[in-house]
Amino acid sequence: MIAKDQFKMIFRHWGRNRLNTFISFASLVIGLTCSLMLMLFVMNEYRIATALKKAKDVCLVRTVEKVNDADTKPGSWVEPGQVRAITDKMPAAGSFCLLYTPHQGKIKIDDRETDFWDGVYETGPGFADYFGLPVLRGDLKKTLSASNEAAITASYARILLGDKEPIGTKIVFRKAKYVQMGLEYAEFEKYITCVIDDSQRSALDIRLLFGTSETELFAFRDQRWSGFYTGFVRLQPGADYRDVERQIDADSTILRVGNNITSVELVPIDKVYFMDRSNDHNQLLSSRDPQLLYIGGFTSLLILLIACFNYVNLTMTCAAQRLRNVAGQRILGASKWNVRGQVVLETLLHVVICFVLALVLIYTLLPDFNSFMWCDIHFGDLLKPGTIGMILLLLFAVTLLPSASILSTLETDS
User: Fold this and answer.
1) pLDDT tens-place string over residues 190-212
2) What is the pTM of this model?
3) 257-260: long-range contacts, CB 8 A cutoff, minimum separation 24
4) What is d(CA 250, CA 168) in angstroms, rounded to the nearest whole number?
5) Burial of residue 265, with CB atoms counted within 10 A of its CB: 0-12 exposed, 13-18 middle, 19 or more buried
6) How many angstroms separate the CA atoms of 233 and 256, rounded?
7) Burial class (CB in 10 A: 0-12, 13-18, 19+), 62
């Protein structure tokens, strides 16, 4: 049977069963749309969690405090002296990196002043080696080595400057300090010399980085600047962070550096995004409840299975007509393989049309989906290598499973 005749039979069958065909198409389009968007969400969250691949052996330092005779859940604001004490006393901890979060600061560009509550940090040049953030323009380590330079993410530069070239732009950084009557601000002039590529989000929510020396970084607390510290340590290759945790908790001199600290927790950088943040208000760290990913992945598969089952069920309601078609094809000399090919071709054509319609729906609904799920998925994510492979596997399964079920029923009945 030539392909032209096969297509004629398919479209004739669809035309004779318009209602069933419409419902079948609608259910599969909805199923593919929901499944693909949930799949994009799960894969995007996984990419965020594993984005800092160059930060090998780096762990976030968290502490547990005693409040009202009870231990709190871990938080990631730390005392800088405690992080340094860990590297001084623990042979397995090779080095440390601190980020200081100025609280209630302001930035001014071209006479436009903006308050900020998160995303702006001060750190030393070692930060560049620790996390290996991709850079579009400039040298991040060199920028953080200078006290009058700043690095900005590409997305934040677009928010503040629009289409203006960020390199060379002057930023007036107004930093809050505690005084007897409240807060007062000191101004520091910075020039943007580096643009960070943040097209791929990570567990670190960074917008602006100001360079400072280690000595100044440790002096901020004594100088009564308003802000908080986040600390990271890099373990020696092969060191187990759980062993280091136990050694730290056994050393009372390290615990005494902080106020009411009862224990220290180390979180590997690839686990930071999915860690428990119920008592952690550190805005440097992005997070997501991992249960949401499990629910999203399971729901995606469940919706797809329901759509496939619905397609098979609607197809088999026309079983009598199907059997007549099969009998007619066999009388005309078609082999079993011809008949099987006809069913697979019809299912494949059905899936391809529904997939195209699903892409149109995804493009339309993606902004609303992003708002609902608090995520940042782009339509272009469908073209990423890992995503393309998953889509092809999904389309193969959606084509093969219903075809196998339909053929099994038809051949049994015939």
Assistant:
1) 999 999 999 888 999 999 999 88
2) 0.79
3) 257/79, 257/81, 257/82, 257/85, 258/63, 258/65, 258/78, 258/79, 258/82, 259/65, 259/79, 260/65, 260/66, 260/67
4) 49
5) buried
6) 19
7) buried
